[in-house]
Amino acid sequence: MAERKSFLMRIDPALWGELERWAVDELRSVNGQVEFILREALKKAGRSKSPLGSEEGNDRS
Prior knowledge:
By secondary structure, this protein is an all-alpha fold. 48% of the residues lie in helices and 0% in strands. It is globular, with a radius of gyration of 12 Å.
């Protein structure tokens, strides 16, 4: 498995709640949901230099 990076993110509690509800709806953790959103944004913006696949099954698209 590839090494994963960690970082601290400060986030508004209301935004966290929305992300948490969205993640539950899609059967993901909040971390998995944030990764999914970021991967999709990179693909949509054409900013991905390599295929951004599903890591640990978090991408359920």
